[in-house]
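#structure-requests
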Amino acid sequence: VNATPDLGDQVEDHPELHPGPEPRRTPLAGVILTDAELDHTLGIARLREADGIEIVATAPVRHALLTGLHLGEVLTPYARLDWRPLGPEDRPLAEDSPLVIGAVPVSAKRPRYAAGLDAPDDGGWVVALRLTDRTTGRSLLYAPALAAWSNTFQRAAESADHVIVDGTFWSDDEPLSSGFGSRTATAMGHLPIDGPDGTARRLAALEGRTLYTHLNNTNPLNDPAAPHHTELRKLGVEVAADGMVIDL
């Protein structure tokens, strides 16, 4: 899910993802994208040595990557790009896969490079992913970017066994108080964790297991000793860690 710039390092750290005995073969079947931001898509170029790359994305995200970043022109001389649509309806991840996937729109925020593209401003620009295992009925909702907690997202969160949510900023004024930005967290497309409109209390009300991901380097939760962890533990909310394995 998403192809971050450090994708090569992730593959190196996990032997199960190393290339097989046949040349140019990899266990990586493809990439599912939640948005078209650079920090979630630049890693696709690291997969160019495969015969083909399957990319599952919404229509606006595909349009941005092909028209704004010219991903097709850059990569097709190296590898075939196979595009699969991602929408609100649940679809099998692959023919022989027990997993089905659907998208939950969460924001119309475009990447900066796509600001001038002729494309609709709809919720397909940023989505949460709903993954369900048909053999067990267990499900996961993954939203690394969350600009608004809509009724649709609430229903998806209530029905999921695990919910992994955008934890970019602890407070809404964090970008301002940290001195690196001129907009609030909400204005940047990330609901804050704390505060009356924050996500922590919403997550605490859910029955499923809830975790935060996608922490910015200004977020105090990066410090394991920060008292903010105690606040979350009281609410029953966790912070996902690198290398964590979650069993559905």
